[in-house]
Amino acid sequence: MPRPSNPEAPCFVYVLLDLSRAVTYVGWTVNLEQRLARHNAGSGARSTRGGQWRLVYAERHATRGEALRREYALKRDRKFRALLRTLQ
C-alpha cells in the first residue's frame, strides 16, 4: 500500500463487505476510490482477492497514526462488523 509522502496527510479507515461470502475487511488508505478498485481488481490485500467488495463504512482521520490506531480497533470490533453485515 502506498504510504503518504506526508505522515500528516489525511487518511481513511474503511470497511469492505463481500456480499457473496458475508465477509468484512478493514483497512486504511489515502485514496478510497483507488483502493477499492485495487481490491476488486485482485491486486489488493491477499485476503480480499477473488471477491467483489463494496465499501460499507469509512472514516477520515487527520494523520496516518490516528488511522492506524482506528484500523486496529475496528479489526477487533466484531460486533460492529457484524452490525454492518446485517445492514446490507
Please give the radius of gyration in angstroms: 13 Å
Helix content: 25-40%
Q: Give the biggest sheet.
A: 3 strands, antiparallel
Order of strands in the sheet with the most strands? 2-1-3
Number of helices: 3
Note the gap between the termini: 27 Å
Residue share in β-strands:
25-35%
What average pLDDT do the residues reach? 89
SSE-based structural type: alpha+beta
Notes on the structure:
The protein has 88 residues and is an alpha+beta fold. 38% of the residues lie in helices and 27% in strands. The chain contains three helices and three strands. Strands 2-1-3 form a three-stranded antiparallel β-sheet. The chain starts with 10 loop residues before the first strand and ends with a helix. The model has no long low-confidence stretch (mean pLDDT 89).
Which helices and strands, and how do they pair?
Elements: E1 11-18, E2 23-29, H1 32-41, E3 53-61, H2 64-76, H3 78-87
Antiparallel strand pairs: 1-2, 1-3
Structure described in brief:
By secondary structure, the protein is of the alpha+beta class.
Task: List its traits.
alpha+beta, three-stranded antiparallel beta sheet
